[in-house]
Amino acid sequence: MRAQPVASHFIDGAYVEDTTGAxxxxxxxxxxEDIARLHEATPPLIExxxxxxxxxxxxxxxxxxxxxxxxxxxxxxxxxxxNRELSELETLDTGKPLQETLVADAxxxxxxxxxxxxxxxxxxxxxxxxxxxxxxxxxREPLGVCVGIGAWNYPTQIACWKAAPALAFGNAMVFxxxxxxxxxxxxxxxxxxxxxxxxxxxxxxxGRGAVGGALVTDPRTAKVSLTGSVPTGRKVYAAAAEGIxxxxxxxxxxxxxxxxxxxxxxxxxxxxxxxxxxxxxxICSNGTRVFVQKxxxxxxxxxxxxRTEAIVIGEPLDEATQFGPMITADHLDKVMxxxxxxxxxxxxxxxxxxxLNRPGTYMQPTVFADVTDTMTIAREEIFxxxxxxxxxxxxxxxxxxxxxxxxxxxxxxxxxxxxxxxxVAARVEAGTCxxxxxxxxxxxxxFGGSKLSGVGRENGHAxxxxxxxxKSVYVGxxxxxxxx
Length: 484
Ligand code: NAD
Description:
Layout: E1 9-11, E2 14-16, E3 23-28, E4 33-39, H1 43-61, H2 65-81, H3 83-94, H4 98-104, H5 106-120, E5 127-129, E6 135-142, E7 145-149, H6 155-168, E8 172-176, H7 184-194, E9 202-204, H8 209-217, E10 221-227, H9 230-242, E11 246-250, E12 256-259, H10 265-277, E13 289-293, H11 294-309, H12 329-344, E14 348-351, E15 366-369, H13 376-379, E16 386-392, H14 395-403, E17 407-408, E18 410-414, H15 418-427, E19 432-435, E20 450-451, E21 454-455, H16 463-467, E22 468-475
Parallel strand pairs: 7-8, 7-10, 8-9, 10-11, 12-13, 12-18, 13-16, 15-16, 18-19
Antiparallel strand pairs: 1-2, 3-4, 5-6, 6-22, 11-21, 14-15, 17-20
Bound molecules: nicotinamide-adenine-dinucleotide.
Nicotinamide-adenine-dinucleotide binds at residues 149-153, 176, 178-179, 208-209, 212-213, 216, 227-229, 232, 235-236, 250-253, 284, 381, 383, 409, 449, 454.
């Protein structure tokens, strides 16, 4: 077992095991090799994690914000120093190419820790004059114990994007990684301790949905931040509502990428590929509905086919590899099912569409052209490397069709016309819109979805709203005007 952690869970500052929990087998998607065997958290471990977080939070919140920031800064430094080791683990955990993980995972987690480390000490309240010499001042307080629940596509980044703002603003966290990728968050917990975080501040418990459910409904839980699919989001949001808990929901998408005739062809093709094939297409914000204006369509498809067929598919640990396997055999079957639906419903297969005859869960990067709005591949989130290209004629038509979806995570527009770019950005229903770019998510910018794609925002200044609460303190300065 080449990636076996010390133990399954990290609670109150130390690795903890309880082999009576149901097993979780971790496999390397590129080969099918078992790389680690872990166990789900049992009720006593969930209790231990929640109790440790509740205890640690009180002293942590009382620290000077610069001191909290110093710990997060140190954690970011350690992550950067160990980038290669953490990236290799991320590759084993997810099957994503090392070429990607070296630049997109641990480093993005470190960015979040650095950003919120600096942010911590800048948080202040307001003074509000209310007449007669009285005034109100506001305090920005932490929420308390926050529960983070992660998806499997970005295990390090998701853990850090949740932990960094939570801890910076004085909260503690119990994090449950996806059962498919349980390894990376343990390293973040270890590193935070090494950086000086108190035991119990950031805990990792493993498990499937039921463990997540127990965390969400624990009476000590003040806030739940989920990254996952819409069906899971519905369940977690409803369970959190029972206790009137705060939530952030980072859910799925079916984002449009609109390419106008005047766009730079190579940039638009490159962005469409980035927004469909990076991480083997397993990215929530992918621009999976590529609307291409009719005048550029033939040239766009020619270049797209040529460049897609040149993608280097291979062993993810080889740094030359650009495209790896799908996360699991079940997920590969699901994505291949969508390829079959695309064919059956009359889309034109431009390239790809087949499984690869090699060990591991590989399929080809796939492009369908002549896709129409009603086809299944244009409506449902596939979460795989399946791009749907749709034609359009006018700007109004493109926007109307782009918005005709229940999702609202992201959107993109490629055009040389500045005014049009901003018009489109203003009208698309999405939490993020890229102009002449795609899938860039710097920590400085808020990220999250509208419509079914989610509630709340991660990153940027916006995160403050989702990891703190405001207390108003009214200060009376005169006699009390009581009618009694
Ligand atoms: P998933 O919904 O199957 O699982 C997400 C997490 O929720 C897992 O940790 C799972 O164990 C847990 N879970 C499942 N049922 C639960 C329950 N009843 N109570 C509490 N926790 C429960 O998602 P996935 O397959 O791991 O990830 C893929 C999905 O995530 C896609 O839809 C993708 O778009 C989405 N995603 C969104 C973002 C974003 O930022 N918007 C980022 C990455 C992935």
